[in-house]
Amino acid sequence: ARSINLVIQHSLMEVPKNDYEPRIDDPRIGYFTTRVTDMTSISHTPYRDLIHRWNLTKKNPGNKLSEPKNPIIFWIENTTPYEFRDAVSEGVLAWNKSFEKAGFKNAVQVKIQPDDAKWDAGDIRYNVLRWTSSPTPPFGGYGPSFVNPKTGQILGADIMLEYVYFTNRVKYDKMFNPEVLDIEPNFCQMGEYIHQENLLGLISTEIISASEAAKKELVKESIIRLVLHEVGHTLGLNHNFKSSHILNIEETHNAALTKAVGLTGSVMDYVPVNLSLDPEKQGQYYSTVPGTYDDWAIQFGYSSSLKNPTEEKERLEDILSLSTDPELMFGNDADAMGATGKGVDPRVMIGDMTNEPIDYSVQRIELMDKLMNELRGKYTNKGMSYHALRNAFNILMREKGSSATIISRFIGGIYVDRSMAGQPQASIPLDPVPLSVQQKAMNTLRDYVFSPDAMFPPDSLANYLQYQRRGFDFYKSTEDPKLHRYALSAHKSILNHLLHPRVLQRIIDTQIYGNEYTIEEVFDGLTDAIFKADLRSEINSVRRNLQTEYVNRLIGITGEGKGKTSKYDYISQETAFFHLRKIDKMVSKGLGKDEGTKHHREFLHHKINLALELD
Questions:
Q1: Which of 17, 122, 157, 359 is deepest in the core (most CB within 10 A)?
Q2: Distance between CA 606 and CA 613 in Å, rounded?
Q3: What is the pLDDT of residues 416-439, one digit of tens each?
Q4: Is there a contact between 417 and 426 (Cβ–Cβ < 8 Å)?
């Protein structure tokens, strides 16, 4: 009764015989590659990696702008809903803007699969934007391709679009987790990310503008944005998480500007839905055209080669030498700081926006707080359960935590420049984040993340955070909202990074080459942010959890306690030891009048003395 039949199809394709010329990769720009190591070279970097690109050649080689002999044709699968087809097509065709920079007109074309087509969407001879709807969707959008391994020529590609992306169904079971997505190389989670941002955008438009036209525009722009991103992958481009730093906050709401150049330098970035508290000043929600980096990358990958090898090398170097332009910044998955302790450049982040990322994150947190106060009034509908309200709360909490995570990455960060030696306008390869920026990040965390009221939901909301039961879904758990877990999860996310062994070691190392924010000042800032605000008053339950977590982390760093060792460097250990002693003096001065505060301080005093074996 449980048996199934499988039909497996093997498709074989003959290696093309053509005049395709491979192009060698460069670290200043982001293409997928086939790795090649020159085993006869004596170079320190004997890399001859082949970038992945289509074989585009001009019909009229003498013309500056020419149609290609064989354009890149994408087919929209005939199962795609009619109401989405125009937006999907617009997202594909928008790439022609970039190809014109490389000398090609109408390089990318779109057709719709006929209802009576004799070929299936899985036929590898056709590049298809496929449509699927899954009960447990593995992605929101995905753009795989396959290449000739000897040359890097792209031979075919498909793009998968998942219907869950356009619904109000929350795809994640742990939406409150504030950790930014950690992207695996060669795997795209753009669909999942924009799905989350669309849910936030719909909450915002429902509360702030209450406009159906705004909701429709949000969905339309998000489809175009998703297709732009996934088509970019099928053109050979990998992620660029550093491209979001080209506009300031005010410029992001200048629709005339962003419709021409995009909200960011590249559609290969993961950026949040662009929201304004003032509906009169709302700009585009998402980019609908490739950015300046995308134009540059396509020019490098697809512009026609010169016959003379020396001249061709010089031509490509002229293009690559532009990498110092701030609008062409590039950093991919390997550089990203999403996961704790990973990456070093805070500008290579998922979910950030503008060249004022800390201020933008503050505005984002303030927006989440405003929306939180309005949730119950907008999501308590007669005859409906409170499921939508609970989902909305989870989304806002995750967004708030993600903004805090972005702020934290500037502490102990290093600005990275991959320019080659002697390149004009190049910066220092490894330049520690300025003191003022790191201090601003710490103070912002103090005021918007660690402060006594930062992670408390509105009083009128907590009693209504109820999921709609489905069958026996609560059989192995309980349905009550874990409010303290939500708050502690956000706090842990920040401490995971700031107190990570790699980060503390980097703060110490960079003091040798320019970092003015010392390890002692970092710990001073953290201890003050976590203890100072309620040192002479009652400590609420969220702050008690935070303070206990911080003390536990400090004890772990010192390696003190029976049978324990530390994985931290010696300077971090001694600094943590000093702050444990400092905290012990703080909590011992006055245990507090209310019972909860008294118990908490006695507990911290006990933990510290037990770990350090103090008299």
A1: 157
A2: 10
A3: 999 999 999 999 999 999 999 999
A4: yes
